[in-house]
Design brief:
With 364 residues, the protein is an all-alpha fold. It has helices at residues 4-22, 28-44, 69-90, 107-129, 146-167, 184-201, 208-226, 247-267, 277-286, 291-310, 329-352, and strands spanning 102-103, 274-275.
Length: 364
C-alpha cells in the first residue's frame, strides 16, 4: 500500500506527464521529458507487478540453447495479428504487401530488425498510453542467437498488449506453431512487414534526420574498417549536394551500399544479407517509400558493418552519433554517397588482401 505522500507524488507526476503529452506534437523536449517522468513513475510505484510474457507456443523452454527461428517467427506473426486489431481500432491504413527483397538473412541482421520493431512498438505505446518499456540488454553480434530475437519481439508484443488494454480491445488471437525448418530470412521478412505497418500507425514517425544519423554511424564503422589497412587514410569529401531528392532515391543508393558490403563479405569468406536490386527497384516504383522505410534499410546496413567490425581483434566500441538536427532527403542522399565511396575503397583493399580480418599486420 502506498503512503499518502507517495500517492500525491504519483498524482503530480501523472498530471505533468499528461500535460506534456498534449505538447508532444510541438516539442521534442516534451517528448524527452515524458520519458524521464515515466521512469520517475516507475521508481515511485516500485513494487507493482510486471507483465508476464507467455512462453513459446512450441513448448520449448526459454533459453539461448533451446529457442529456434520457428519460435521467433511464431511470436512475430502473433505480434502482427495482434497489431491488426489495434490498426483496425485506430482506423489506420493497412500496409500493402511488398515483394521480399532479402535472402540469406543472418541472426545479427534479424536482431537489428527486432530492435527497430521494439522501438516502434514502444513509441506507439508512448503515444497512446503515455508509458514506455525497457528492451532487453544489448548483445554482441557474435553472441546473437534466435533467443535474443525472441526476447526482443516478445518485449515488443508486451508493449502491444499495453496498447490493447488501454484501448479496451477485447479480441484475442492465439499464437500458432511454425515448422522447425523455419529460416532466419523468413523471420526477417515477417518483421519487416510488421515494422512497415507500425510506420503507418505512428504519429511521430521516423524522419530523414533519423536516417542521416544511422548512415553517419555506418560511416564511422566504415572508417574504422578502412583504418585496418596501413598507410594514409584516403580523404572522402562529400559528394555535391543535389536538391529535390526524395526517400526512394536514398533507398536505392543504400541498396548500392549493400551490394558493396555483400561483395566485401564474399571476398573475406563471409556471408551477409543479400538484397535483390530488381525487387528494390520495384518497391520504389510500386510503393510510396517513406523515411521510415529508409531508416529500416539503413539500420540493416549498420548491422552488417557492425558484424564485419566485430570480426576484428582488439577493437573498441563505436558509439552512436548525436542527433543531427533537421535534415531532408537531399542531405541523406549526400551522406549516403560518402558511405558508398568508403565502401568502394574498402572493397578495393579487401580484394587485394582477402585475409585482412584474420591478419595481425597487413602489407602496405
Amino acid at each position: 500500500m502506498h503512503s499518502i505522500p507517495m500517492i500525491r507524488e504519483l498524482t503530480g507526476l501523472i498530471n505533468l506527464k499528461m500535460r506534456l503529452m498534449d505538447q508532444l506534437k510541438k516539442s521534442t523536449e516534451a517528448f524527452l521529458l515524458i520519458i524521464v517522468i515515466h521512469f520517475s513513475l516507475v521508481l515511485v510505484a516500485w513494487g507493482e507487478p510486471a507483465m508476464m510474457s507467455p512462453p513459446p507456443v512450441s513448448g520449448r523452454t526459454v533459453s539461448p540453447e533451446t529457442i529456434v527461428p520457428a519460435d521467433v517467427l511464431a511470436r512475430v506473426q502473433w505480434f502482427r495479428e495482434e497489431l491488426e486489431t489495434v490498426r483496425f481500432e485506430m482506423g489506420k491504413p493497412k500496409q500493402p504487401y511488398s515483394t521480399p527483397m532479402a535472402t540469406d538473412a543472418l541472426p545479427h541482421e534479424v536482431y537489428f530488425q527486432s530492435v527497430t520493431l521494439f522501438i516502434k512498438a514502444d513509441r506507439l505505446a508512448l503515444e497512446l498510453t503515455g508509458s514506455t518499456g525497457l528492451r532487453p540488454r544489448p548483445i554482441a553480434s557474435s553472441d546473437i542467437r534466435p533467443y535474443h530475437n525472441w526476447m526482443l519481439v516478445t518485449a515488443a508484443y508486451d508493449r502491444l498488449m499495453v496498447i490493447k488494454n488501454e484501448l479496451g480491445i477485447l479480441e484475442t488471437v492465439s499464437e500458432k506453431v511454425h515448422p522447425p525448418s523455419t529460416k532466419p530470412t523468413e523471420v526477417g521478412r515477417a518483421i519487416v512487414q510488421a515494422s512497415r505497418q507500425l510506420n503507418l500507425m505512428l504519429q511521430r514517425r521516423f524522419s530523414s534526420s533519423d536516417v542521416f544519423q544511422q548512415i553517419s554511424w555506418g560511416i564511422q564503422y566504415a572508417e574504422a574498417l578502412l583504418a585496418r589497412f596501413p598507410g594514409s587514410m584516403p580523404s572522402f569529401s562529400s559528394p555535391s549536394f543535389e536538391r529535390g531528392k526524395h526517400p526512394g532515391e536514398v533507398f536505392l543508393r543504400l541498396i548500392e551500399c549493400f551490394a558493396r558490403v555483400e561483395e566485401i563479405a564474399r571476398l573475406s569468406g563471409m556471408t551477409v544479407l543479400h538484397l535483390d536490386e530488381k525487387a528494390a527497384g520495384e518497391a520504389v516504383r510500386d510503393f510510396d517509400v517513406h523515411p521510415s522505410d529508409v531508416y529500416d534499410l539503413a539500420t540493416l546496413l549498420v548491422s552488417d558493418l557492425t558484424y564485419l567490425y566485430g570480426k576484428l581483434k582488439d577493437t573498441v566500441p563505436i558509439p552512436s552519433v548525436p542527433f543531427p538536427g533537421r535534415k531532408f532527403p537531399s542531405h541523406v542522399y549526400q551522406q549516403a554517397g560518402v558511405l558508398l565511396t568508403q565502401l568502394r575503397e574498402l572493397e578495393k583493399k579487401v580484394s587485394a588482401n582477402p585475409n585482412w580480418i584474420y591478419q595481425t599486420k597487413l602489407p602496405k
